[in-house]
Amino acid sequence: MRLIGKNIILKALDLDDKKLKTLQRWLGDEEVVRHGGFVKTMPQSIKHIKSYLEKLQDSSDVRLFGIFFKNGSYIGNIRLDIEWIWRIGTISLLLGAKSYWGRGHGTEAIRLISDFGFNTLGLHKIEAGILDGNVGSLRAFEKAGFEVEGKKKHNRFSMGQYVDVILVGKNNASR
Known about the structure:
Shape: globular
Radius of gyration: 16 Å
Number of helices: 5
Structural class: alpha+beta
Strand order of the largest sheet: 1-2-3-4-5-6-8-7
Helix content: 25-40%
C-alpha cells in the first residue's frame, strides 16, 4: 500500500539492511530521539530493530509506513496504532533525516496517515502525545488540523527529567 502526497510517499517499510542501518543510526542520534520519549539505555542492534518492526508489521492493530521523499530518499517512519473497539488511532512519528526537518514533511505525513485512518479504516478519532518542548512536532500536528486537548503532567522521563506530554487529537466530525 502506498499513500502518495505532494512531496512524500508513505509505503510499507521493507526491512532491507540499508534501511535497518539507517534506522539504527537515527535511533542512536540523541538529537533525533530526544523528543520521542525513547530511553537510550543501550545501542540498538539491527537484530532487535528488525524483530521489533516485524512484530509491528504482523499486528492487525498497527499500520507502519516508511516515509520517502519523492526522490526515493528514506526520511522517517510513521505509525498508526488502532483501538478497533473504540475506532481510535494513535500516531507515532519519527523523522530521522535531519536535513528534511522544518520543511513540512512531518505535517504532510500526518495528513496522509490521518486521511487513511478516517477514509479507509473508518476511524472516528486520531490522536498523538507530544513531549513538551518538541515545538516542531506540535506545530506539524496543529498544521495538520489537530487541536491540543490536554496535558499529562510529568508523564515521560527524557533527558534526565520528567516532562509533560501534550495530547493532541482530531476527530472525523471536525475534518
